[in-house]
Predict the structure.
Amino acid sequence: MAGLTAGAPTPQSITVHEKSRMLELVFSDGAHFSIPFELMRVYSPSAEVMGHGPGQEVLQTGKREVTLTDLAQVGNYAIQPSFSDGHASGIYTWDYLYALGRDQEALWQRYLDRLQEAGVDRDAPMIARGQKSGCSGH
């Protein structure tokens, strides 16, 4: 099935925790992850965030307080969250969510390192960052 590695774990439960801004997932292999909405938003698999190829990633800022406004299932292989900042184009496959949960400590550190390298504050609004992308929109 598209978006899944054959035999890969699939979610048995998905719980949105609004107050702590976490998505809790329990997978068929027993893995249990609580993924912060901010991490999900910063690592959205959308072209708006990932770009259209290697090296075109757009560093995300101002996402600390982001919440989920909707969570739609995509077939039997993914979810598509809508975030409070208007971002809703990322499709998170079960494989991608598993990797986000499993690797969140390393991903978080990579994000902090990228912010430091760019000389940008984590809470800086995206608009104040200038015209980085050739794509229209925010």
